[in-house]
Amino acid sequence: MAHTFEDLVQLERAAVDAHAALTTADDPDAARRAAVDASAAFQAAVTVYAEAEGESRVDVEMRVKKAVRHGETAG
User: Fold this and answer.
1) Main-chain dihedrals φ then ψ at residue 9, nearest 5 degrees
2) Which has the least CB within 10 A, 25, 27, 36, 67?
């Protein structure tokens, strides 16, 4: 599946939210699985995007993380 940069930002935000939810989860095992799944989905999407765009996977990941942390949306 092709992803846009904004898709990657949304996936990373979901992963960050899932990890944050670990501290207040009623079901820690389910929360941990959700966090791992969200992170894996983000990582897989970054790999696909980077390959499709001919970019460094690490560079793409860092741009997305910067966008999430600093509220930027442009890729």
Assistant:
1) -60, -45
2) 27
